[in-house]
Design goal:
Layout: H1 23-37, H2 64-69, H3 77-93, H4 95-132, E1 141-148, E2 150-152, E3 162-164, H5 165-177, E4 181-190, E5 192-193, H6 195-210, E6 215-224, H7 226-231, E7 236-239, E8 244-246, E9 251-253, H8 258-264, H9 288-312, H10 317-323, E10 328-330, H11 331-337, E11 342-343, H12 346-356, E12 364-367, H13 373-379, H14 385-392, H15 394-397, E13 403-407
Parallel strand pairs: 1-4, 1-12, 2-3, 4-6, 6-7, 6-8, 7-11
Antiparallel strand pairs: 5-13, 8-10, 9-13
């Protein structure tokens, strides 16, 4: 066999077709053919390529030892430009992902701005509900304070049907401490309550007046008994023609369940240090001495009530006593009797307060304790507000000595 026709691996290149050549030879020939296309002209030397002239078919062959020594030919400028273009196209192919990242970053910013907006609006609503809203046209203020529900001493969240003397007095005190407040409006919707609670609120009203802060009362549906007690010292009282007011008087209630206990076989043994110590206990009725004593206590509170109305309304005690038999008056009748000054709503009262406070222009109205959703939510976390409120006022509603009330029975 001719050595020229045998490659480095002992294969007869003349008698072997490309299809029958081993895979390595095919790959080498392909690689060589690929390299040959990029060789510069004139580099095809006899040292690297041999021609087979023994047959009609021409097939360039590579000597194994020579292929390893052949350096990779340099790229032409056009080839470099082609590769650079391909590289650029590959880089540009990744640009959509970069844009997508940018869009994602912008989405996060928009979500953050939306959250900030929601928080800002929520905070504004809460502050408005807590009494910081109003007209910002002037720095001079009118403070509106709600007295809504049964009046008693103690700490009960606002908006749950009770008006505590602590809350009302605190709001009056805060209004007086604010140097920009020129007058106070009390919006009253209450059937009355504890005489002690009414006295605490009335004292705070008088303190505000001593500081030069006028107080105007706006009666809603009901402003009776203890609610009228705190209204009497006001500088001006507005009512509606159908408002229920008056009911000047005091009541002390007792409960006698002795017949029920006897029927159910319930027996009590009471050990007491004095004759009146278990007065008002539900296991028995009152003795004659206890009834007489109860009347004395009620009349003491009644005299205080009469004095409050007489001084607040510039009436004599006898004039007040003629009216103070516990009856309720409509707003129309109360005006005729001198218990209220005029008819009007809350905004009429605000205008009057502005006048008495010498406010020039439109005042800024500040609602100190206006009921709002935020207050109700904060006041009742479990949703069972009746049960929670009952816990707050248990000491008052279930007083074992009975309840002394200045309210509608």
């Amino acid at each position: 066999m001719n050595d020229k026709n045998v490659n480095s691996e002992g294969t007869d290149s003349k008698n072997t077709s490309p299809e029958e050549a081993p895979g390595d030879d095919l790959s080498k020939n392909s690689a060589y053919a690929k390299k040959e296309t990029i060789l510069p002209d004139g580099d095809n030397s006899a040292s690297t390529i041999r021609e087979n002239s023994s047959g009609p078919n021409f097939a360039p062959e590579i000597q194994g030892s020579i292929v390893k020594d052949v350096p990779e030919p340099p790229f032409r400028n056009s080839d470099k430009k082609t590769i650079e273009k391909e590289s650029l196209s590959m880089n540009s192919g990744s640009s959509p992902s970069l844009k997508k990242k940018k869009r994602s970053g912008m989405s996060y910013i928009l979500v953050l701005l939306a959250l900030i907006t929601v928080i800002a609006v929520s905070m504004a609503a809460i502050f408005y509900g807590l009494g910081f809203g109003g007209n910002f046209g002037t720095s001079e203020k009118i403070a509106v304070i709600y007295v809504q529900g049964s009046m008693l001493t103690g700490n009960v969240p606002a908006g749950l049907g009770y008006a505590t003397s602590e809350e009302i007095s605190e709001n009056i005190h805060r209004a007086v401490a604010d140097k920009e407040v020129r007058a106070i409006v009390l919006r009253v919707n209450s059937a009355g309550g504890s005489p002690a609670a009414a006295q605490e609120i009335a004292i705070e009203i008088e303190k505000a007046q001593e500081q030069g802060i006028p107080v105007v009362v706006s009666m809603g549906d009901l402003a009776a008994s203890a609610a009228y007690y705190i209204s009497a010292p006001a500088d001006y009282i507005y009512a509606n023609p159908s408002t229920s007011t008056g009911s000047i008087g005091v009541i002390w209630t007792f409960e006698n369940l002795s017949s029920y206990y006897e029927k159910e076989g319930i027996d009590y043994y009471i050990s007491k240090s004095g004759e009146f110590k278990d007065m008002g206990g539900s296991w028995r009725g009152l003795t004659d001495e206890e009834k007489e004593y109860a009347d004395t206590v009620v009349m003491d509170s009644y005299e205080d009530f009469v004095t409050q109305v007489a001084e607040g309304r510039n009436m004599s005690r006898s004039e007040v006593k003629d009216l103070a038999d516990g009856r309720v008056y409509t707003g129309t009748r109360a005006k005729e009797l001198g218990l209220v000054d005029d008819f009007g709503n809350l905004y009429d009262a605000i205008d009057k307060a502005s006048e008495l406070g010498d406010i020039q222009g439109e005042p800024k109205v500040v609602y100190m304790n206006k009921a709002s959703l935020s207050r109700l939510l904060l006041g009742s976390e479990s949703g069972d507000s009746n049960e929670e409120t009952g816990q707050f006022v248990n000491y008052f509603e279930e007083n074992p000595y009975g309840k002394i009330l200045s309210c509608l029975s």
